[in-house]
Every structure is written in C-alpha cells, then in structure tokens.
Amino acid sequence: DVEAPGPLYPSSWRSAVEISREANQGRELHARPDYRAQARLVGRALKSAVPAFDKSAEDGARFRAYRLGSLEVRTLQEHGTSEAVISILSSASPCRAADPERAPAVEDAEMLAKATEYVERAANGKDRHSYVVLETRAGNILLTEMLPDGAVAWEENPKDLEDRNSLAKVIRSADCGSSYATVKNVRACQELSGSCTSGSCSQCETYA
Questions:
Q1: Residue 88 bridge partners (DSSP)
Q2: Domain map (residue ranges) of the chain
Q3: How many whole angstroms separate alpha carbon 20 and alpha carbon 25?
Q4: pLDDT of 13-28, one tens digit each?
Q5: How many angstroms separate the Cα of 47 from the Cα of each of 66, 107, 159?
Q6: Which helix (H) or strand (E) covers residue 59, if one does?
Q7: 19 in Cβ contact with 64 (< 8 Å)
C-alpha cells in the first residue's frame, strides 16, 4: 500500500507517502521480486517517467516512486550515488496466473476483436523486441512473438502480460470487430511462419 511505505522508506513518511489517494482506490499492490532481474530495463523506462512521489530524507537520501502502467517502481538515491531501484510492485491481478488451469480455454472459432503490436527492449538492453497481443470477442487474450532462437511462441491468457505491457510501447493497434478473422486463422499463420535459426531484431519485427 502506498500509504504504508514499509521498511524501505522512513516510517515518518507514512502519511506523506500517499500518492493520489483517489487514484489508488481499489489498487492493491503486491511485490514483484522477480522483476529485480530486469532492473536495468526498468531503469531505462524511468528515464522518461515523472515520479508520482519524490521526497528527500535529512541525510540527503532521495526516495522516488514511479507509475508505469500496472507497475509501481520505488527507487533510492543516496547522496553522491546514482538512483537505484529498490522495490517493484504490481497492481495487476495475480489470480489467473496463480491457477492457469482455471483460465478459459481458447476456441479456434473465436473471432478477433483487437490486435496490438508492442515493442520492448531486448534482454541485452540494446536491441528491440516486438510481440503481438490479440483480444478475442470472448474476452480471451493471445500473445505471439518470435523468440531470440527463432522459435515462434504462442501463449493463451499469458501470465503477467499487463506488467510486461507496462514496460513496452504500443507501435500500432487495429480494431478487428468488422473482420471475420478467427483464432484458427491466426494459428494457421503462426504454423506457416515455422521457426528460424535465430530471431534477429528485424526478423522479430517482420513476424509481428
């Protein structure tokens, strides 16, 4: 909870750490320690972000909190040092991810409602990586992308997609409501794409 800063922030800031109380109603945050491995990529995203909370302690240490979509990133910058990520939280519901067997099955006959292409920083921090998110009229979510090894990935109602999208940028989006494209059509295209020996940046973009 942003109103309870916890041990990472000075306890005297309990009331001051409230970040837009109205905007936080119904927003439950849970820790994402697994994202610490991507701290460098998160740090790049923070360069163009404006902190929702920014306060300095008496010893000169500066504490900030940023909002990136469903993610809340908290940082610490001690006197004479660079800003460092100390905590990454998410407001995305973990329910579906907690029990993937309960996720609704995606039928081949489901019609597409929307297609969105995203681009994100690759794991090496230099290249870009593209992926496509498809929404069906039944409310299911599909993710497809070409992986670095050239394999084509396909996920149905993927775990943590909302958090992943928070660190990516939308390149283009299309409303498929007036088309008759189905999940089966997309699966066929994916199978035709096969796999390559390596998924270079340009190959990934071409596939997307």
A1: 73
A2: 11-90, 112-195
A3: 9
A4: 554 445 444 445 556 7
A5: 10, 41, 26
A6: none
A7: no
Give the HSE-up count for residue 205: Cα atoms under 13 Å, Cβ half-sphere. 12
Give the distance, in angstroms, between the CA of residue 25 and the centroid of all CA atoms in the same chain.
21
In sign, the C-alpha dihedral spanning 44, 50, 54, 60 is positive
Residue 3 parent element (H or E): none
| Residues 69 and 60 sit within 8 Å (Cβ to Cβ) | no
Do residues 100 and 51 lie in contact, with contact meaning Cβ atoms separated by under 8 Å? no
Helix and strand counts by DSSP (H, E) for the chain: 6, 10
Name the nearest CA neighbour of 142 among 168, 110, 178, 175. Answer: 110
Q: Is 43 helix (H, G, I), strand (E, B) or coil?
A: helix
Cα 64 from Cα 42, distance rounded (Å): 14
Residues of the chain with pLDDT under 70: 1-27, 93-104, 123-125, 193-208
The pTM assigned to this predicted structure is 0.65
Distances (CA, A) of 102 to 96, 128, 180: 7, 33, 28
Alpha-carbon gap, residue 93 to 99, rounded angstroms: 12
pLDDT digits (tens, 9 = 90+) for 146-190: 888 888 899 999 988 988 898 889 999 999 988 889 999 998 887
Q: CA neighbours within 13 Å on the CB side: how many for 92?
A: 23
